[in-house]
Design brief:
By secondary structure, the chain is of the alpha+beta class. About 35% of the residues lie in helices and about 25% in strands. The chain has 2 domains: about 1-75 and about 140-205 and about 330-365, FAD/NAD(P)-binding domain (3-Layer(bba) Sandwich), CATH 3.50.50; about 80-135 and about 210-325, D-Amino Acid Oxidase, subunit A, domain 2 (D-Amino Acid Oxidase, Chain A, domain 2, 2-Layer Sandwich), CATH 3.30.9.10. The structure holds flavin-adenine dinucleotide.
């Protein structure tokens, strides 16, 4: 099998293929993973999905844990802490718990939520309630894909060819800048760059780029949880929350006090890395081609919002970067058969970490349906 793209989608498929006894060649134009898969929060955000995506995300979980054990990277069954800072935010969490049950959505008191955030005891008044979503996983995005790529390269039936750009695919053959590579089955997993390689397919699915502003900050003293932390703006972006009756009220409420955050498409969330520093973000800007310029106001808004949740006046930024993922108004997944034995798979909804191993499992048991 030949897999184009050493991001998490290509590598999860390579892991499953090797686990199923196949031989695999992974091709990537770069020298190591530097795409969306290393730029994100390392959050396998299972519980916040709904419907078919929830089922696929739940399938992803055991795959992540098996891969982490095999390739030796950190994967924490740390869940997600959702912080509620108003009665409406708490109502959305209550409604989710009513549907999913108390094991999947564990209610937290204001005190428990504030304590989990490491908030000082006299700085907790703004917290109303919270919930722990225990099914979610955490990985270090800077470690997971590179470790998996190493594992594939060191496997007796695996190889990874870096610095090899793919220029075309047809049944049995992948054309690259270093000559042809052959395989009975070919998977094209090039993320948002699907429009460079397969412009007609990308156009037909309405693929565009979503650009996100991210930063790594020093953790305030006391903040030690490995759980991902989501807030009100997160509840406006993930289907598990947006499908609750109180979500419409929540949108009005957030619009009233934080319209600028909605204007930059904010999902105010953060995750702690094993070294103790914290990944914070993010904003969402959509375009076919991404501009290189970032308005500093975007960072001011995000950093200020995260600082408020953590109960500190400001955060010390250690790094900033832009992430890009594939997005489409036509659906969360692009799965197209291009020719016999040749399939393209891009996640077009910003949840590729969450779905990766579920998609790979579905590819190999034949249940992954094409989307056009
Ligand atoms: C800031 C940010 C935050 C995110 N947060 C989350 C989150 O919390 N949870 C979640 O589930 N998801 C999240 N995502 C989304 C997730 O990161 C992506 O959906 C996922 O990483 C996509 O994986 P991929 O393998 O398709 O793409 P990529 O990781 O971009 O990999 C694609 C690979 O293909 C290679 N490639 C492209 N074209 C060619 C070519 N012609 N020839 C050879 N190689 C090629 C590239 O070099 C690259 O290595 C986030 C994304 C970003 C950017």
């Amino acid at each position: 099998m030949v897999i184009v793209g050493a991001g998490i989608i290509g590598l999860a498929h390579a892991f499953e293929a090797l686990s199923n006894g196949l031989s695999v060649t992974v091709l990537d134009r770069d020298r190591r993973p530097v795409g969306a898969s290393v730029r994100n929060f390392g959050h396998c955000c299972i519980s916040a999905q709904d419907g078919e995506l929830l089922a696929l995300a739940q399938r992803s979980r055991p795959g992540w844990l098996r891969a982490a054990e095999a390739a030796g990277f950190w994967a924490a069954e740390a869940g997600t802490l959702v912080v509620a800072r108003s009665a409406t935010e708490a109502a959305v969490l209550d409604e989710l718990r009513a549907e999913r049950g108390g094991d999947a959505v564990r209610p937290y008191t204001a005190e428990q939520t504030a304590a989990a955030l490491g908030r000082a005891e006299d700085e907790r008044d703004d917290i109303t309630a919270g919930a722990l979503l225990p099914a979610d996983l955490r990985v270090n995005p800077r470690e997971a894909a590179p470790a998996l790529a190493r594992w594939v390269a060191e496997h007796p039936r695996g190889r990874v060819l870096w610095g090899t750009a793919v220029t075309g695919v047809e049944s049995g053959t992948v054309h690259t800048t270093r000559g042809a590579v052959h395989g009975e089955r070919i998977l094209v997993c090039v993320g948002h760059d699907v429009d460079y390689l397969l412009p007609d397919i990308a156009e037909d699915h309405g693929v565009e780029r979503c650009r996100l502003s991210m930063a790594r900050v020093e953790a305030p003293a006391g903040f030690r949880t490995d759980s991902a932390v989501l807030t009100a703006t997160s509840m406006l972006r993930y289907d598990a929350f947006t499908s609750r009756p109180a979500a419409a009220r929540l949108r009005e409420e957030v619009l009233g006090h934080s319209a600028e955050l909605l204007e930059i498409g904010a999902n105010v969330m953060f995750t702690r890395l094993p070294d103790g520093t914290v990944l914070v973000g993010d904003s969402h800007h959509y375009d076919a081609t991404t501009p290189p310029f970032v308005d500093e106001r975007t960072y001011e808004l995000l950093l200020d919002a995260v600082a408020k949740v953590l109960g500190v006046p400001r955060l010390r930024v250690l790094e900033r970067w832009q992430g890009v993922y594939a997005s489409s108004p036509r659906g969360p997944l692009l799965v197209r058969d291009l020719a016999p034995g040749v399939r393209a798979i891009s996640v077009t909804s910003g949840i590729g970490m969450t779905l990766s191993f579920g998609l790979a499992a579905a590819t190999f048991d034949g249940t992954l349906a094409t989307t056009g």
